[in-house]
Amino acid sequence: MVNVIWMAMIVIGVGFAAVQGKMDVVTKAAFDGAAAAVTVCFGLISVLVFWMGMMKIAEDAGLMEKLSRLLAPFIGFLFPDVPRNHAAMGYILSNMSANLLGLGNAATPMGLKAMQELQKLNPDKHTATPAMCTLLALNTASITLIPTTLIAIRMNYHSAQPAEIVGTTLMATAIATCAAIAADRWFRKRLRRRPPVPKQPAGKSM
């Protein structure tokens, strides 16, 4: 559906430009946008590599293990239906740690691996489990201590104070995380109160 929306926007934009005789503006905007995207990507590489290296050092130094023990009760509260020693827990922790540092690109692979592990615990492969929904909500509205990616983008565009957004970002993401957790708890309670759906006898249809 998203691909259809983007394609429609592109076609409509190009169509209006053609009708108004401004195809040169569209061509210039396309090339300028591509050049800006490459420039921004190169600016982000150094920051992402730095923080991913710091996370690797922290992992080798045992800090990630200590952080895991510290967050274990909290993660157990958020994911009560996932065994404590399951592989998904490690990927969930890595995903949350990357999001805390504002490394959305680094958090995505860990989130996908966590989803794959959670899928192994899923009795209905065509329906997301509550744990999957919780992970998706936390990954989308994760609290961010250091908005690394945004700071890198602001630095790339020569912001006078690229780190001034740390306080407001922390407050906004904290509120978003609390709202996501509250919504997740509410839907979990609602799911538990819902009566089980009776199975249809074999050979019969609605």
| Integer-rounded radius of gyration | 22 Å
Secondary structure tally: strands: 0
N/C terminus separation: 28 Å
Could you state the order of secondary-structure elements as H and E? HHHHHHHH
* pLDDT averaged over residues: 80
Structure description:
There is one protein chain. This protein is mainly alpha-helical. The chain has eight helices and no strands. It has helices at residues 2-20, 23-60, 63-78, 87-100, 104-120, 130-140, 148-156, 166-193. Helix 2 crosses helix 7. The radius of gyration is 22 Å and the shape is globular. It starts with a helix and ends in a 13-residue tail after the last helix. The model has no long low-confidence stretch (mean pLDDT 80).
Write the layout of secondary structure elements.
Elements: H1 2-20, H2 23-60, H3 63-78, H4 87-100, H5 104-120, H6 130-140, H7 148-156, H8 166-193
Helix pairs in contact: 2-7, 3-4, 4-5, 5-6, 6-8
Domain Nucleoside transporter/FeoB GTPase Gate: 42-150
Pfam families: Gate
InterPro entries: Gate_dom
Brief descriptors of the model:
mainly alpha; 206 residues
Summarize this, please?
With 206 residues, the chain is mainly α.
